[in-house]
Specification:
The chain has about 150 residues and is mainly alpha-helical. It is built from 6 helices and 3 strands. It holds the Pfam family PCI.
Amino acid sequence: MSLIDYIEDDQTYQFTKYLNLVKTEQDKQLFDRFAYGVCDPSIKYPNEKQKKKMIILTILQLCQRNKCVTFDSIQQACFLNSQAEIEQLLIDLIQKELIIGTIDDQKGCLNIQRCISRDVRKSDIPAMKKQIETMYERVKHLKQQLKQQ
């Protein structure tokens, strides 16, 4: 399969393992866009499959960074016009188990328990390590407080 085949495949959402398929500068730009990018209204996708994939990847990135994602934030990030379209996308992502969570129609948001991860650049690893170390210190502090009670 080619890089475009994986990009357009509705089962593929992580692309780092296909880096070996990057042969040209155009391939590199395409790889970077789908591995690390988010929706951009200035980009004209060659087909609906690629456009929908980028919308899904953008939603996944929002879900990775937040426990609750509002429909408004999805609408703004993905440049979508219809709340019904957003809800249908979220239902599809939950059914495919790309996102584990619940839709709250009253609050207009998606409550996330977990979701699949996006690709990570090597340059992002130090910041991720720092976040994990910070969480570890918080948990350690909480554990000490609980012992004192």
